[in-house]
């Protein structure tokens, strides 16, 4: 019986195969220099670095699943999974090729060169290394700002509604003993 993990891996392999065939047809329209610029941009922005954990995680998950089924084969399972995972590591280039094609479809060769040049610069490198910290700070500031705006909006609306309701009921304004006076429209005031 195939496990859920096994079915997921097979589905992912099938989807990747179909995508590779489709992308290969579309990639023919993109020049090699354009793809080279896209690869340089991808490398400079580290666009695919986050996917480096996929194969190790898949290998670890498979080891755990197989060892749970047959703990007596732990050494064989570990060695076999490691061997096969290392053999698949070369397929990482497939992802780079797909990513380069995706970037090349959206950005011109000149734009990709500009992206690569910027992110290779000290400022671009600093943006990559410190950008997450800045993003967290901006999100924290936005949350504080959002809370203040929501509070102030609720207070302003509450005060306005209380004032209108008070005027309609002929009540006094809070904190005063004077009745609320509704001004008459212009041109109709007593002279």
Observed structural traits:
191 residues, 7 helices, mainly alpha, single chain, 2 domains, flat
Describe the structure.
The structure is a single chain. The chain has 191 residues and is mostly helical. It has two domains: 117 residues, no CATH class; 48 residues. The chain is 75% helix and 0% strand. The protein contains seven helices and no strands. Helix 2 packs across helix 5, helix 2 runs parallel beside helix 6 and helix 6 crosses helix 7. The longest helix is centred in the last third of the chain and has 47 residues. The protein is flat, with a radius of gyration of 32 Å. The termini are far apart. 7% of the residues are buried. The mean pLDDT is 84.
Q: Which structural class is indicated by helix and strand composition?
A: mainly alpha
Tell me the overall shape: flat
Which percent band covers the strand fraction? under 5%
The end-to-end span amounts to 95 Å
Q: Give the helix tally.
A: 7
Helix content bin: over 70%
Determine Rg (CA atoms, Å): 32 Å
Mean pLDDT: 84
Low-confidence stretches: none
Number of strands: 0
Total domains, how many? 2
**Biggest beta sheet summary:** none
Question: In sequence order, what are the helices and strands, one letter per element?
Answer: HHHHHHH
Structure at a glance:
With 191 residues, the chain is mostly helical.
SSE layout and pairing:
Layout: H1 4-27, H2 32-45, H3 54-69, H4 74-88, H5 92-106, H6 109-120, H7 122-168
């Amino acid at each position: 019986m195939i496990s859920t993990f096994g079915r997921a891996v097979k589905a992912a392999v099938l989807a990747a195969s179909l995508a590779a065939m489709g992308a290969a047809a579309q990639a023919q329209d993109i020049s090699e220099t354009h793809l080279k610029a896209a690869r340089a941009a991808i490398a400079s922005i580290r666009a695919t670095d986050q996917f480096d954990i996929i194969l190790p995680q898949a290998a670890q998950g498979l080891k755990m699943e197989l060892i749970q089924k047959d703990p007596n084969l732990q050494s064989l399972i570990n060695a076999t999974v490691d061997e096969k995972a290392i053999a698949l590591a070369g397929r990482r280039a497939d992802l780079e090729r797909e990513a380069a094609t995706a970037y090349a479809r959206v950005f011109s060769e000149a734009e990709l060169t500009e992206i690569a040049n910027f992110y290779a610069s000290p400022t671009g490198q600093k943006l990559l290394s410190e950008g997450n910290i800045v993003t967290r700070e901006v999100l924290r500031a936005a949350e504080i700002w959002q809370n203040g705006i929501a509070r102030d909006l609720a207070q302003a609306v509450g005060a306005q509604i209380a004032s209108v309701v008070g005027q309609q009921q002929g009540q006094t304004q809070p904190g005063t003993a004077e009745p609320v006076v509704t001004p008459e429209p212009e041109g109709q005031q007593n002279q």
